[in-house]
Amino acid sequence: MLLCNTQSPPESPWTASLIVRLVSGWPNSRFNPSEGFLLQHIFLTLQLMKSVTEECPDITRIYTIGKSYTGLKLYVMEISDNPGKHELGEPEFRYVAGMHGNEALGRELVLNLMQYLCKEYKKGNQRVVRLVTETRIHLLPSMNPDGHEVAYKKGSELAGWAEGRYSYEGIDMNHNFPDLNNIMWDAQETAADPSKVSNHYIPIPEYYTQEDVAPETRAVISWMQDIPFVLSANLHGGELVVTYPFDCTRDWAPQENTPTADDAFFRWLATVYASTICVATVLVCGGVM
Length: 289
Ligand SMILES: [Zn+2]
Fold this sequence. Notes:
Its cofactor is Zn(2+). This protein is α/β, with parallel strands linked by helices.
């Protein structure tokens, strides 16, 4: 969607501001007194999100799921016909971006998506109207605002590949969530009937709570416990790859198919995403992994 928009003339100040930021980076530092912290992107991200809620107040809501290590809020935009409410039978979906703070494109895509959904809903785009009325969409543009600040301040010319990638404490959030796959596989190995082992809900193990878990990771985990998400995606940058569950192999085998019960659906989703990206960017794509 973003790529399509950048190929056509800006339709509104929103789109124009986004393109400017993509090309030239953020404006100078600002101080947000309500946060008491020198902020670059989080202030402007919030400003942009607020402009969306002002434009589409009936279908949007901004909320926070917690704070980063340095105290920056993790803002989420909710888009639905009844914001703030879980409606029976209406699936909950989320996009998370910026887990690696130096991968900036995901945040821009998510910010652009919220603008797009608002504008198209108002225009009566039937596909978007259906999405807004029949699902509840949650968009977290920046899961690692501390890392993004570090990467931004260094600049793309001076930053190494890891500058701003991790949390302020040096934690890679991409490997910071509990490994529930192996708990399930271990249980299947010892069970009299492996098909009876639950693959639906596995509690977080006790030992995990004693490990180094970033506050940002904890915030996302409790967010997932609060809202019954049925589907989500996490946007990264730098690789042309789509991964889907179970995104690891048993015993760290170099190659092994570890499908979920929803494998056909995940493969279809990944293929749709990968082929759409290929069309939008005129890239030669090898396939889905
Ligand atoms: Zn990443």
